[in-house]
Specification:
436 residues, alpha/beta, six-stranded antiparallel beta sheet, five-stranded parallel beta sheet, 28% helix, globular
């Protein structure tokens, strides 16, 4: 079979790898080449910078000096890591035909590249073209005063100050990251707290941590427009919950205001593809769209926009198209945000029983004296089987991923502590759980 895959981010790469290793012909198309926007401009670059910020913090604790003048060295390091990743990916996909171009699905199950005008017809088409930044009316991103998450890879010098609009994962990670590099951050939130769907204790610790890092939190401000204030910068026109309005003027702003479909909903519908309420492509649990032999994965399919979800969906779509009987739909997905401290969750976020493990003196805490508490909540059903969890602290994502195995295998709460975790590791949390 011939698989044509539009988009070489996490979902597209997973699909290409799965199909090619099973001996099928694969054509992978992306204007950014292998890795797509995720690897080259946003997801991977941000995580490399987060690791660099942590390394610099530890070095400072040991007496080493670092200044913003060394930013170019950090970015050079990032570029090298990305180049190495792309090279390794190319080696793994050596049998895949890669086309660096924009491509569109056309009626009649045809794919046409935009620049070269090449027409391709395959047996299966997988749409993995990602999503794009949701903008705010008034000013377009210019790379100087109005920024989008591409700055994780394109920022030539650290700005003295930055306003971040949006308190979702991208906004929180950006605020936490750049504040550690000495940037004065003002974070705008439309609500009155952070991560409201998590345990209130975790919300308070995250707020405390950000403020200790120098982040100014601006509550109850929904930005409805941007205005050009000339040499003064950008005007943030806001409205609050009482319908009062105002305008704050800042030198520069980062938009972390959510994602929208890469294609216009009208053009998707014209092809016969059904969409969800937000204009993303509607799919079933295997990624199958309303068109026969057409799948959508990752951001293109909406829902939680996570790289790990996209990777699993890409694999599942290929297997389903090939009729592999062992395939199971993706059920529980670990969600992690790499602020300082990290927070993560998986599965159901409520249950018949609730078990808690908070910070113990022998666990890591030196990395953040202003927020020393690690916190884990595990939810169980009436039979005391693990159904979900959320965590905050060092390596919270790893702990949640470990608990994900318990959720998937329907383990009992007592099973979590029936092994000797290496010490010191955050997996020791599991041995200190107590019923709340």
């Amino acid at each position: 079979m011939h698989f044509i895959i539009l988009g070489a981010g996490p979902g597209g790469l997973a699909a290409a790898y799965e199909a090619s290793t099973r001996g099928h012909e694969v054509t992978l198309i992306d204007p950014e080449g292998l890795g797509g926007n995720a690897a080259k401009h946003s997801l991977v670059p941000s995580k490399i910078l987060i690791q660099a910020a942590d390394a610099i913090l530890h070095a400072k604790e040991l007496g080493a000096a670092w200044s913003a003048d060394q930013w170019s060295e950090v970015m050079a390091y990032q570029s090298q890591i990305i180049a190495n990743m792309v090279q390794a990916t190319a080696q793994r996909l050596s049998k895949v035909t890669v086309i660096t171009d924009i491509a569109h699905l056309e009626p009649g199950f045809q794919v046409r590249t935009e620049n070269a005008g090449q027409l391709l017809i395959g047996d299966v088409v997988i749409l993995a073209m990602g999503s794009r930044q949701k903008l705010i009316a008034g000013m377009k991103p210019d790379g100087r005063r109005v920024l989008i998450p591409r700055i994780f890879h394109t920022l030539n010098a650290l700005p003295p100050e930055l306003a971040v609009i949006g308190a979702g994962p991208t906004g929180l990670e950006a605020a936490s990251l750049f504040s550690r590099f000495g940037v004065k951050i003002r974070l705008y939130s439309p609500g009155s707290t952070l991560i409201p769907t998590y345990d209130p204790i975790m919300s308070r610790h995250l707020i405390s941590a950000l403020q200790s890092d120098g982040v100014e939190l601006v509550w109850d401000r929904r930005i409805i427009g941007l205005t050009d204030e000339g040499a003064q910068g950008v005007g943030l026109n806001w409205i609050d919950s009482a319908h009062l309005t105002g305008c704050d003027v800042v030198p520069r702003v980062l938009l972390a205001t959510g994602r929208v479909p890469m294609w216009e909903p009208e053009s998707i519908a014209a092809l016969g593809l059904s969409t969800d309420g937000q204009g993303f492509i509607a799919v079933d649990e295997y990624g199958k769209t309303s068109l026969d032999r057409v799948y959508a994965v990752g951001d293109a399919a909406g829902g939680m926009m996570l790289a790990n979800k996209a990777w699993a969906q890409g694999t599942a779509a290929v297997r389903h198209a090939l009729g592999v009987k062992s395939i199971h739909p993706l059920t529980d997905i670990a969600e992690a945000v790499y602020t300082r401290p990290e927070f993560a969750r998986i599965g159901q976020q409520t249950g018949h029983y609730r078990y808690v493990a908070d910070n113990a003196p022998w666990l890591y805490k030196s990395w953040t004296d202003h927020c020393p508490t690690n916190y884990l909540v595990v939810f169980a059903n009436q039979d005391r089987q693990v159904i979900g969890a959320q965590a905050m602290g060092l390596h919270a994502a790893e702990v949640i991923s470990l608990i994900g195995l318990a959720v998937h295998q329907n383990l009992w709460i007592d099973d979590l502590g029936h092994f000797g975790a290496a010490s010191p590791t955050m997996a020791e949390w599991l041995q200190t759980l107590r019923r709340d």
